[in-house]
């Protein structure tokens, strides 16, 4: 049997050797024969050997060569495509210029800096501010655009389906609306197969006839209404049982979700009224929405533009296919979305396109949106996917436009018409009514859009998170529309949160592709120079004739060393150049791994599209430096010039980047709040000396930073807020420092974690001053508070309040004693109006109805009750001459001197009071005895509980201790019976107390019996304890035995 296995193994090895030899022969037959073939093979073999990678680089080289050749003819290209670009729904008039070369925002800024020749660069300089406003932010153009388009709403209208005339405009406001727009509305406002629907929403876009570069954004609400007899009497044209109407609203702003939320209550109110000829509601709604948009449109941000879209619903329904759909869009496929509900089509298309950065901005901009556009433009975004001629984006596509699909190169349209769905000019059909079915009519496109493992992993993470966070109403497109404002209370798990992942995904794709292109160019140029200098060594004398051919070859890299690949031995002069090739190959390989994240097969096909060409021509020249794979050593980094970058968070950065992060000295300008930061950076964080200042001079900081945190000494000035000069730690005031707050109060002293803590001095703006210790921003411990009027408190504080022992001089008064919550509280001494009050205080007053002490300037002393700072009641007056008088006072007026009997009565009262106190303390002693008794009873109860527990244990060991158990139970029964007999006899003896002379003897005998019972009880308790101890010992032995068995099993 064993020999058979050996024979099979040997045969298998022989077959493998034969296959390897055959493969070698095939490879040798493919080796280049001519000189041209050898040169091309040599160049390719110094690069990556993957077929996918080589095909990708070949296509990339071809596209780049064509684009670079056409760069000089760029104005002609722009002029040639001007119409299609300007008609694009995504056309941005400021992103394409007819200059010889297009400059991205950062490139444009870099060119401006170069021309200015300024020694010290400052973003806050007036020249740069003017350049930013006019050439970067286009503030003047944006302002003029908003000024000219003061009417944010274009119109509101009612479209009715007439049984003879078809769709007609029943009403529109304002009246002077372009007739072309109204004609278009008649077939866009009513959905197909309107008789089968009760209500529906439709989103659409219309060219603005007055301005071909602008678009009108429309929302229509359709409703089918049952016709009543009363309606027929008022309108004789109503001959059918149902009436179809749509309320449409057109806007200059791309705010579909916002318009739906505003028009919903209007439509409800209009259709609820019986008289449909009353249009006052619609006119009021138009004026209200228009005024609201006029006030807020300059402050709209991304989240409001994306209102009504739901990436969560998209990911939940399509899962990893979401990324497949986005790839189909980038590959410019012809995509059709079908549903009998037009609202679902519209929401799906808007949600899908919202995942591509900047697409849904359309032609709208304001100051906030323009800041985001700057970063996108540096990335070459948004992708130019659609226009109004041959690349359509229609959320609702009607049968009237069916013929235009034949000439369309690509499109993304939504429809409710089955005839449009079944047309042949389509690559992908998405049927939302059939469980979100994807039907690829173009199998080539399907293969191009397949996901690799990294892409699947990216989508799997998002799908799992969405499934955990999505709400019930978000799972359907209709639910999304009905709950526009009721979702996403937090950032994490919101629609904007998931949209952010996709935006970063496509930004990273443009960055890594830019880095790959840059590395290829470097390798190609430098390697060509090496070939020129060493042409004889590489290829012999014949190379002179073929030199031009070599320079045009594209370089590819692999992991094999350059010396082994070329099959040559380098001398010391040539080895340095081979090391460079090897180093660049390794860089390219790392970059290639990042590119695989986006699927090389997809990228290879994307190179053929028009939107790739647009991206390549409009990206920033330095975009590749944002990659975390871009690395320069310290020496090369020092030799580089500082450049301009637009970074996330609306930051403009002038400096150097390494691994995609700020490195070395640089200047950051936060464009939203206009703050400039000059600092030394390390791995993207501020480290070292840093200076921060705002354009309006309301903020200033100069000091040290450590890992993006203020550290050590610094100066911070925030106008109308604070001014601080001192030490920092972890971005907080810490250590010694001086702080002036927004109220003008000045603190000098110690800080801890941003709060006053330790010794310090606080000078108030009103003249008050505190010197002492602080804790967590409060006065705490010993301190002195000096008031502006001269009052002084010196003593203890707690949580900012006078509390504890202290001394206060206030308004001619002097108090020494105890304080609580800023009041005299407890024992104290008060000097007031020539008198000294001693005693117990409450809420800054002497307690009434108890004896207090008043000392007069004459030396007289009063011992007795005090009310409102005056003698009040019976007391003792000790005069300065030694005389002692028992007196009665009322409101500080002498009433009479008490006689002996009155004094005796008073003393009796005092004695009675002392007696009551003695009784009280006696009662306390009795109470303490009762407490002891209660404790004893409690202990007895505990003992009984223990006995019951022990009884349970005895039951478990009944077989082993049965004799002891029976004896214990008998003893208890005897004891109980004996006690009952004794109690009966004891009661009888008490009743016969007077008759029986021998009671004392009986009582003594009974006492002796009780002692014997106690002894028996002690014996019984001893036996019980013994039983419980034995049982516990047996338990322990059993547990140990079980543990030993388990350990033996584990060892085995």
UniProtKB/TrEMBL annotation:
<dbReference type="InterPro" id="IPR003409">
    <property type="entry name" value="MORN"/>
</dbReference>
<dbReference type="InterPro" id="IPR051731">
    <property type="entry name" value="DENND11/AVL9_GEFs"/>
</dbReference>
<dbReference type="GO" id="GO:0005737">
    <property type="term" value="C:cytoplasm"/>
</dbReference>
<dbReference type="InterPro" id="IPR018307">
    <property type="entry name" value="ABL9/DENND6_dom"/>
</dbReference>
<feature type="coiled-coil region">
    <location>
        <begin position="940"/>
        <end position="967"/>
    </location>
</feature>
<protein>
    <recommendedName>
        <fullName>UDENN domain-containing protein</fullName>
    </recommendedName>
</protein>
<keyword id="KW-0175">Coiled coil</keyword>
<feature type="domain" description="UDENN">
    <location>
        <begin position="154"/>
        <end position="626"/>
    </location>
</feature>
<keyword id="KW-0677">Repeat</keyword>
<comment type="similarity">
    <text>Belongs to the AVL9 family.</text>
</comment>
<feature type="region of interest" description="Disordered">
    <location>
        <begin position="1007"/>
        <end position="1052"/>
    </location>
</feature>
<dbReference type="InterPro" id="IPR037516">
    <property type="entry name" value="Tripartite_DENN"/>
</dbReference>
<dbReference type="Pfam" id="PF02493">
    <property type="entry name" value="MORN"/>
</dbReference>
<dbReference type="Pfam" id="PF09794">
    <property type="entry name" value="Avl9"/>
</dbReference>
<feature type="compositionally biased region" description="Basic residues">
    <location>
        <begin position="1036"/>
        <end position="1052"/>
    </location>
</feature>
């Amino acid at each position: 049997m064993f020999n058979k296995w050996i024979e099979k193994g040997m045969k298998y090895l022989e077959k493998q050797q034969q296959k390897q030899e055959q493969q070698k022969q095939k490879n040798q037959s493919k080796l280049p024969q001519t000189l041209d073939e050898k040169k091309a093979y040599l160049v390719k073999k110094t690069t990556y050997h993957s077929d996918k990678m080589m095909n990708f680089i070949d296509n990339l080289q071809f596209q780049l060569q064509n684009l670079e050749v056409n760069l000089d003819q760029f104005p002609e290209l722009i002029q040639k495509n001007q119409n299609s670009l300007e008609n694009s729904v995504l056309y941005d008039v400021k992103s394409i210029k007819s200059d010889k070369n297009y400059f991205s925002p950062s490139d444009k800024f870099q060119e401006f800096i170069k021309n200015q020749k300024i020694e010290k660069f400052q973003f806050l300089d007036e020249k740069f501010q003017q350049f930013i406003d006019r050439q970067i932010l286009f503030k003047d153009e944006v302002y003029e655009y908003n000024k000219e388009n003061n009417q944010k709403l274009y119109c509101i209208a009612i479209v009715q389906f007439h049984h003879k005339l078809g769709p007609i405009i029943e009403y529109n406001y304002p009246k002077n609306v372009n007739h072309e727009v109204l004609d278009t509305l008649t077939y866009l406002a009513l959905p197909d197969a309107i008789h089968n629907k009760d209500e529906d929403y439709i989103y659409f876009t219309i060219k603005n006839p007055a301005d071909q570069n602008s678009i009108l954004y429309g929302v229509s609400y359709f409703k089918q209404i049952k016709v009543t007899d009363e309606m027929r009497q008022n309108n004789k044209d109503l001959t059918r049982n149902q009436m179809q109407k749509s309320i449409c609203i057109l806007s200059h702003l791309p705010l579909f979700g916002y318009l739906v939320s505003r028009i919903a209550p209007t439509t409800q109110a209009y259709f609820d009224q019986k008289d449909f000829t009353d249009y006052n509601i619609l006119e009021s709604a138009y004026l209200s929405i228009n005024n609201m948009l006029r006030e807020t449109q300059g402050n709209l941000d991304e989240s409001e533009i994306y209102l009504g879209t739901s990436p969560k619903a998209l990911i939940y329904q399509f899962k990893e296919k979401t990324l497949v759909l986005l790839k189909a869009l980038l590959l410019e496929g012809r995509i059709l979305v079908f549903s009998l509900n037009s609202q679902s089509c519209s929401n799906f298309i808007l949600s899908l396109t919202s995942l591509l950065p900047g697409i849904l901005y359309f032609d709208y901009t304001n100051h906030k949106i323009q800041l985001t556009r700057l970063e996108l433009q540096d990335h070459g975004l948004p992708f130019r996917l659609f226009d109004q001629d041959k690349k359509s984006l229609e959320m609702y596509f009607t049968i009237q436009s069916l013929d235009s699909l034949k000439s369309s190169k690509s499109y993304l349209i939504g429809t409710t018409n089955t005839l449009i769905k079944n047309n042949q000019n389509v690559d992908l059909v998405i049927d939302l009514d059939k469980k979100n079915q994807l039907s690829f009519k173009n199998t080539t496109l399907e293969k191009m859009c397949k996901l690799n493992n990294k892409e699947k992993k990216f989508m799997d993470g998002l799908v799992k998170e969405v499934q955990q966070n999505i709400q019930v109403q978000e799972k359907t497109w209709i639910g999304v529309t009905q709950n526009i404002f009721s979702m996403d209370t937090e950032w994490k798990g919101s629609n904007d949160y998931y949209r952010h992942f996709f935006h970063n995904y496509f930004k990273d794709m443009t960055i890594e592709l830019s880095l790959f292109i840059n590395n290829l160019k470097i390798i190609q140029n430098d390697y060509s120079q090496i070939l020129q200098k060493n042409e004889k060594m590489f290829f012999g004398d014949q190379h002179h004739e073929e030199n031009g051919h070599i320079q045009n070859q594209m370089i590819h890299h692999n992991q094999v060393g350059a010396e082994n690949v070329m099959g040559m031995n380098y001398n010391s002069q040539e080895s340095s150049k081979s090391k460079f090739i090897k180093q660049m190959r390794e860089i390219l390989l790392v970059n290639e791994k990042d590119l695989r994240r986006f699927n090389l097969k997809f990228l290879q096909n994307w190179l053929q599209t028009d939107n790739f060409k647009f991206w390549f021509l409009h990206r920033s020249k330095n975009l590749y430096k944002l990659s975390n794979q871009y690395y320069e050593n310290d020496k090369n980094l020092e030799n580089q010039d500082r450049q301009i970058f637009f970074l996330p968070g609306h930051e403009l950065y002038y400096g150097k980047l390494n691994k995609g992060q700020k490195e070395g000295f640089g200047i950051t300008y936060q464009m939203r709040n206009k703050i400039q930061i000059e600092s030394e950076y390390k791995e993207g964080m501020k480290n070292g000396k840093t200076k921060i200042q705002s354009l309006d001079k309301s903020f200033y900081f100069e000091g040290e930073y450590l890992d993006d945190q203020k550290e050590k000494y610094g100066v911070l000035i925030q106008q109308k807020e604070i001014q601080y000069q001192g030490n920092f730690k972890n971005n907080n005031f810490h250590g010694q420092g001086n702080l002036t707050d927004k109220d003008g109060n000045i603190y000098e002293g110690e800080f801890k974690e941003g709060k006053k803590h330790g010794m310090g001095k606080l000078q108030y703006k009103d003249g008050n001053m505190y010197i002492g210790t602080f804790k967590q921003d409060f006065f705490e411990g010993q301190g002195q508070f000096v008031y502006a009027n001269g009052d002084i408190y010196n003593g203890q504080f707690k949580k900012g309040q006078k509390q504890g022992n202290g001394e206060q001089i206030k308004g001619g008064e002097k108090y020494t004693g105890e304080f609580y919550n800023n009041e005299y509280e407890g024992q104290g001494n008060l000097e007031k109006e020539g008198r000294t009050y001693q005693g117990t205080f409450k809420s800054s007053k002497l307690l009434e109805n108890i004896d207090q002490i008043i000392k007069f300037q004459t030396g007289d002393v009063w011992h007795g009750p005090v009310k409102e700072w005056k003698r009040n009641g019976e007391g003792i007056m000790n005069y300065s001459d030694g005389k002692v008088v028992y007196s009665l006072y009322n409101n500080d007026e002498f009433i009479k001197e008490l006689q002996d009997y009155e004094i005796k009565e008073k003393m009796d009262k005092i004695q009675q009071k002392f007696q009551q106190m003695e009784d009280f303390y006696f009662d306390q002693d009795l109470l303490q005895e009762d407490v002891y008794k209660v404790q004893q009873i409690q202990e007895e109860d505990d003992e009984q509980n223990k006995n019951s527990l022990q009884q349970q244990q005895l039951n478990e060991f009944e077989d082993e201790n049965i004799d002891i158990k029976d004896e214990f139970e008998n003893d208890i029964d005897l004891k109980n019976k004996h006690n009952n007999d004794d109690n009966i006899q004891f009661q009888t003896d008490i009743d016969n107390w007077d008759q029986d002379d021998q009671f004392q003897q009986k009582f003594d005998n009974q006492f002796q019996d009780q002692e014997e019972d106690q002894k028996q009880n002690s014996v019984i308790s001893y036996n019980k304890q013994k039983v419980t101890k034995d049982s516990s010992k047996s338990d322990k032995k059993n547990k140990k035995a079980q543990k030993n068995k388990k350990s033996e099993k584990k060892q085995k």
